């Protein structure tokens, strides 16, 4: 069985697509090609709908990775048949917020130039953990820097490099103890203007100007060296850009 084609790798703004069911399990459907991003790298899996060729509408409650490169869509009703054509439609408002936040976390990793030990995001907030020893971090300064890069409207693009090239440039990997997955010996990089270039499999906006105004909500100690920085939308706190 072939791996699911990951349309979101090259077309993160594509919201709908037709696909063919290639496997079913209890409450989950794998298709030959999808626009739904599966949970990974701190980014939640997409939600939305799956419509069968008979017109039955199913809610997709989560998207996850499976064995052999399959991507599984968890649904809340009876599964369609293997071989049946379905129409996939992402919850776009939720996905776009995640794309904005994921890109913002890349900016955070540049504003705070320390090794990243973990991260997670939702449509409402995102956080990164940094290996920082004994240095004070300034919430206001980090907020100002990220929003300055937003105002610069820097282009966000992707490229692919050989695994060997990544191994020859280990400084590209910011996450401690976690080498990015490779697809047939290649690794996907996300570039933001001239300020950042790092491996990432997630979905991102096309330019930093698309990111809504943000602020650093908190910086917390999570161990002797670990600092957890949380970003939120300014609209949620009453702030202004």
From TrEMBL:
Localization, UniProt: Cytoplasm
Stored PROSITE patterns: AA_TRNA_LIGASE_II_ALA
Q: Name one Pfam family in it.
A: tRNA-synt_2c
All copies of domain Alanyl-transfer RNA synthetases family profile, residue ranges: 1-232
A single GO CC term for this protein reads:
cytoplasm
Q: Which residues form a coiled coil?
A: none
| PANTHER family the record matches | ALANYL-TRNA EDITING PROTEIN, ALANYL-TRNA EDITING PROTEIN AARSD1
- Name the UniProt record assigns to this protein: Alanine--tRNA ligase
Q: Which organism is it from?
A: Larsenimonas rhizosphaerae
